[in-house]
Amino acid sequence: MKIVSWNLKNVGNNKLANTFNPAITVAGLGNNVGDYIMNVVMSRPVWNNILSAALPDVFVIVELKSGGSTKGVAANGTAIPTLATLVAGMNAVANAGLVPPNTNPNYQYAAVLPLVIGYHETVGVIYNTRSLNYVNSGILRDNVNNVNFLPRAPFWAEFTDDGGTTYDLVGLHAPPPGGAPPNFYKPGIQYANVLTRSTQLDLANQMMPENTFVMGDFNCDPTYTYGNPAVGFAMAGYATSLAAVTLSSMRAAVVNGNPQPSNYLKDAYDNLMHAFPNGAPVGGVTERVPDLIGNARNVNVAPVQPMYPGNVVMLLNNYWVVSDHLPVIFEF
To answer: Which H or E element spans position 303?
Structure first.
């Protein structure tokens, strides 16, 4: 199973057509934002220095733009064509080079109907119909207090595989940090710590809790605290396989003199939380945040040439056209 989670910063269909500095295109990184996303999510050869060759089974898109603000209603506006464009792009890559009927026996993608999670925002879930069967979806609520999670509800989608095993996947966008230390990360930590009040995330309600994955922009790291005395991140029963303080959010500008990657990355906001009660599954897990700036290459020259550090300002500025967050990739 391979899961990709990516906060794509208010992504709509028009954004997918946005172009880059010509140096990005000439290097083979992508002709526009949509092409760049496909290169990363579908593990195309331009990124074979840092990504596995496996195609994803699930792609979760955080900050997918939608109309409306009523939580739980069907997403509308640009959310629908954006998902359709991304699904078509993923299928085009999966099916490339195949003869008619041009369908990959192992990979064919579709999207779950998205729901509004907050003001003009939803979460997109694209899945491989050859490995997963869609069962159900919805926004998560605080079932203990019978209220919505604020300011944005997590989006939950449930699948089974052909053997009947259930997988629950949740995409979320936590509230941003704010205020003076020691309370700067209080909003994200408080948000994470009550998520298990939802029936779907309370591990006591699950037959196979190890098949529940919660991902997205947490706007904090599981090692952070707030307050005095300190209150820690405590999403009951869940853990991450990322190293502590794995940087994933972009700086506004390069900070010369900082060591890589803190010269262009700012904080550790993105994660995938999971619950493996008896340790990792057979074969283990790999969870990582691929550094798409420090590992960018020009693959259209021989030999292939690294673009960092000589082009770090250009790389950062152009990455902002795509997003202000790096993706999280989880494989097991």
So the answer is: none
C-alpha dihedral, 33 to 85 to 170 to 216, nearest 10°: 10
Q: What is the DSSP letter of 325?
A: B
* Structural domains in the chain (count): 1
Which residue type occupies 177? P
Residue pair 40/290 in contact by the 8 Å Cβ criterion: yes
Residue 145 lies in domain: 2-331
**Mean pLDDT of all residues in 201-227:** 94
pLDDT at 49 over 90: yes
Q: Domain holding 247: CATH number? A: 3.60.10.10
Per-residue pLDDT band for 277 (boundaries 50, 70, 90) equals low
Strand partners, 257: none
Rounded distance between C-alpha atoms, residue 201 and residue 209, angstroms: 9
CA dihedral 11, 14, 16, 20 (to 10 degrees): -110
- Percent of the chain clearing pLDDT 70 (strictly above): 98
